[in-house]
Structure to design on (161 residues):
């Protein structure tokens, strides 16, 4: 049976202290991860390659609804957490309620915060908090043609004719 990698914030902080004491580099990313697809898998693998441990801040169901609308998420938070936990590259999942991961990052203080897409690191709302404690923000590219919205559109076009 698979062990869950889902942690409360307080348990995550304790575990990260142990990993830091062992000299491990903590990489953090966040997102909804509503329908896992190859773009997510590539992104998470690339993120993990930047350090020793990969921590995912997972938007709660309420947070996803605020960001994406009332029809999302499709997959509930604990199911999304279980799927992410099953991935070898993922070391920890922490669910958060806010629209941005700023408060979670402030608590966890990862060495590296990773975002995907066409962002400019210094323009991210979380950039000031990450750099305030000496952390680094890195931007990774997405794989074109892979998105949750694209999957939803494809499903609708195939089954809602």
């Amino acid at each position: 049976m698979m062990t869950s990698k889902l942690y409360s914030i307080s348990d995550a902080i304790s575990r990260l202290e142990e990993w830091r004491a062992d000299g491990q580099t903590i990489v953090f990313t966040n997102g909804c991860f509503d329908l896992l697809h190859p773009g997510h898998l590539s992104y998470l693998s690339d993120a993990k390659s930047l350090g020793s441990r990969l921590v995912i801040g997972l938007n709660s169901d309420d947070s996803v609804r605020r960001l994406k609308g009332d029809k999302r998420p499709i997959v509930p938070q604990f199911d999304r957490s279980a799927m992410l936990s099953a991935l070898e590259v993922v070391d920890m999942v922490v669910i958060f309620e806010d629209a941005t991961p700023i408060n979670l990052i402030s608590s966890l203080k990862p060495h590296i915060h990773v975002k995907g897409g066409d962002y400019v690191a210094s323009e991210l709302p979380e950039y000031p908090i990450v750099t305030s404690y000496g952390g680094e923000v890195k931007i990774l590219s997405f794989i074109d043609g892979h998105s949750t919205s694209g999957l939803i559109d494809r499903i609708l076009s195939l089954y809602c004719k």
In short: The chain has a mean pLDDT of 91. The first helix runs from residue 9 to 21. The chain has one domain: 9-159.
